[in-house]
Amino acid sequence: MRATAQGIVWVGVFLGICVAPLAFALMGVSRPGQGFWTDFSVALGFVGLALMGIEFALVARVRAVAEPFGTDAVIQFHREIGYVGLVFVLTHTALSGPGVFAAFAVTELPWRARFAVLAVLALLVLMVTSVWRRRLRLSYEVWQVLHTVMATLAVTAALVHVLLVNHYVDSLWKQVLWAIMSAAFVGLLLWIRIVRPLRLWRRPWVVEQVIPERGEITVLVLRPRGHGGLCFQPGQFAWITVGRSPFSVTAHPFSFSSSAETDGTVAVAIKALGDFTSGVSAVPPGTTVYVDGPHGVFSIDQYEGAGFCLIAGGVGLVPALSMLRTLADRGDVRPVVLFSAHRDQDSIPFREELAELTGRLNLQVVHVLEQPPPGWTGERGYLDAGTLRRHLPSAGPRFQFFICGPNPMLDAMEAAIPEIGIPADRIHTERFAWV
What we know:
Blueprint (H helix, E strand, L loop, with lengths): L1 H18 L2 H5 L9 H23 L4 H4 L4 H25 L15 H21 L8 H26 L6 H30 L3 E9 L3 E8 L12 E6 L9 E4 L10 E6 L16 E8 L12 E6 L3 H14 L5 E7 L8 H7 L5 E7 L9 E2 L4 H7 L8 E6 L1 H10 L10 E5 L4
Parallel strand pairs: 7-8, 7-11, 8-9, 9-10, 11-12
Antiparallel strand pairs: 1-2, 1-6, 2-5, 3-4, 3-6
Helix pairs in contact: 1-3, 3-5, 3-7, 3-8, 5-6, 6-7
């Protein structure tokens, strides 16, 4: 109920921020010769700018914002309103005099228009490099730096453009409102780039162990240095910075693989997928690490149920493993069914530990292999509703369902699970492929 109330509040805040800028246009006095379309384009521009500012808040890793919805849902919303904001800004540009054609004669424009063109171009670069990052072969690290720079440039240039236009901020109350919005934007930048890194810098961690695992996975065991560590819920994740300053732009999200009941150390399991992750196995013990977390609501501690069904594909097994280890350490006797989907038998990580956990928990493990070895008697192919029906107990409809893995698997499971009679409020997902 608390999360629901928070969600309602944040939806109200979002709508208020979107609507408030319309006051600049609706309550302003039109100049001679300034008609409806000019005022309409200004209104679109203000709303587009408000949406751009909201984008910063959505990725500021503020737990109170993400908690009611889940981090992957917030990231998806961030992506979708980015499209909407771009439409508003481009429409504003097209309706404002020379519009998009002004970009080809930027040296002949007044400074207020130059900053408008700069904001639009930065926004376009940001969108293109985000939507087609993989096609452009941009590494995650390069994209993250580019995304941060272009977003900051777009919003800053837009703010300067509004101030130079002046007509819509020429009265005291408008200036106060605009000052509040600008201060909020600057405050977010200070929080993201200064305050939060300073807090992380004061709470360093050190790599204690580097453990290779099947499926091209490396486990980093981290120990706090000079502080008491952190508490997390099984299934949550953290943003990790390895061997770099906490002020660096690039950080990577990884799920905790260790039990939430373990004191002191925490562990993250990282699959080699390219870029930074391919070099994790070579990280030497003793390397300084900064841990920004915990984040996320993908956890058995968030939802009460008669039992749990964990559905994991590939590295999506990591948060499920944290849940299982935690349940075992707590002595929880509720039934758990784990569906673990992988390419082949040799790519199943933590296979021996999963077998050992069946002796400590009321746990059934169902491995599903795309390419099973000769003589394999287990499930083969892809997970579907039939596989779930064959292995879930009669009490399955009262279980809480947690799904983590590649997007195609999540899409398939979100369609299949309702087929076996599971209500939507018992289905929880965590998507890794944000960009």
